Amino acid sequence: xxxxxxxxxxxxxxxxxxxxxxxxxxxxxxxxxxxxxxxxxxxxxxxxxxxxxxxxxxxxxxxxxxxxxxxxxxxxxxxxxxxxxxxxxxxxxxxxxxxxxxxxxxxxxxxxxxxx
Amino acid sequence: xxxxxxxxxxxxxxxxxxxxxxxxxxxxxxxxxxxxxxxxxxxxxxxxxxxxxxxxxxxxxxxxxxxxxxxxxxxxxxxxxxxxxxxxxxxxxxxxxxxxxxxxxxxxxxxxx
Lengths: 116, 113
Description:
Largest sheet of chain A: 7 strands, mixed
Number of helices of chain B: 0
Oligomer: heterodimer
Distance between the termini of chain B: 41 Å
């Protein structure tokens, strides 16, 4: 019973390249959240997705960033034309149901993106 | 807009002490509150989940309380150990919007041997 799996764990990209971060939620979970953590800072919400739908992308920059959670396969966070300021740890979380108070969020180990 | 604050930002205590970490939130419309632990360069480990209808939860040496009306939660760690050294994060599941989790800024705890 694997938890949330993120890959790669570490990713190095040159400025201007694309970064693709993958998140496989806990088996059976249909809700996925992406967060960004800058060094020495807390986790900032980026986007919340259900299968094939973006529910809330209020925390995601309007340009260069996109996210998807297809019917089959992992959720993908895509960053185009990366800049040094995109360097951060990106965490994915999943949960089973959303509108219940006993729903627990499970987090992955994160992908640490370094832009050089 | 929900905002979550944690005090203190950093804490250093000798081994064996009991300690309290604080978390406050501005909007009491929450589904639940979770406490997490994060080790340097690592992911988040869930410690305790308190439902909005609950007052507290306990796991081993950890006890978390929730006072929704005043917008506060505390994490109590009994008999602290060096292995407890980590950053502790609280997160509320917002029920007034799209049910996303909103995190506090964290408390960096160091337990000295």
